[in-house]
Amino acid sequence: MKHLKLFAAVPVLFLLSFLLLAGCAADPEAAKDPGNGEPEETGTLVFTANGEAFVREGFLSKDGWSLTFDHAYITVSGVTAYQTEPPYDTEQGWDIDYQVKVELPGVYTVDLANPDADPAILKEEAAAPAGRYHALSWEMAQASEGPAKGYMLYLVGKAEKGSEVIQFVLRLEKEVAYIGGEYIGDERKGILAAGDSAEMEMTFHFDHLFGDGAADENDSLNREALGFDPLAALAVDGLVDVSLAELQDDLSAADYQLLVSILTHLAHVGEGHCLAKFLE
User: Fold this and answer.
1) Residue 248: which H helix or E strand, with range?
2) pLDDT in tens, 88-145
3) 228 closest CA partner among 255, 210, 242
């Protein structure tokens, strides 16, 4: 009789187990379980681009030109933030071993000369996994529409030196990919707490292109910058309007190669350096 009672209980146990499993599978929160039995904690990751005060307010080039910018269009694509352990360092190269990746689909063009671009917001990505983001990658890509169409960097501004005034339009089309580690600056960025927001910033240093008249002329920044004199020499009736392809013919070979090399260190993560490579 004891054996009969045992066998009779088996179907009941089986039915209870089935109902419990079915209940779990139907739970809408189950998809949010990261694997440890707890719902995944998320926040909002804000992707931004910053040209700093150099393009918003203007600055003095290494060769004495006072530069102001009407527009500084930058176009980026393939923007991706990563959580890595250990933290990513550019010495690791282009292969990145990540635990979490947040991709920002699409192509974005922003005007870094806009006074409100402090910094410019590309997009806010909600429901990003909380945690510390150690790396950021992106491409400076050619815009497919708008005033900067066909160019990844499009600068419109004015240069003044003494009584000379030159309007300039600088159109650069050569696409570059970047990857950098953690943001380096007065404050840390990319630390996302659950229910909060954190910023991932791409920083563009235009003093690397034109130099900085406020710095010593022998500073490495100025030694490696083009300045504005080579562009001023191309002015016709007070206007310089050139693309990178045209500059290959118009600049000296040394100045052209210097300009191209500057594109590989124009972008940073705050003051943090990035790896860069040209896209073919």
Assistant:
1) helix 244-250
2) 999 999 999 999 999 999 999 999 999 999 999 999 999 999 999 999 999 999 999 9
3) 210
Q: Which two tokens stand for residue 34?
A: 């990261």
256 burial level (CB within 10 Å; 0-12, 13-18, 19+): middle
pTM of the model: 0.85
Tens of pLDDT, residues 16-57: 333 333 333 333 333 344 445 455 899 999 999 999 999 999
Which of the 8 DSSP states describes residue 39? P
**Chain length of the chain:** 280
Query: How many whole angstroms separate alpha carbon 267 and alpha carbon 141?
Result: 13
Strand partners, 131: 192
Burial of 152 (0-12, 13-18, 19+ CB in 10 A): buried
Q: Is the Cβ–Cβ distance between 136 and 81 less than 8 Å?
A: yes
Beta pairing partners, 239? 167, 236
Q: How far apart are CA 59 and CA 236, in angstroms?
A: 23
Which own/partner pairs from 23-29 qualify as long-range (CB within 8 Å, at least 24 positions apart)? none
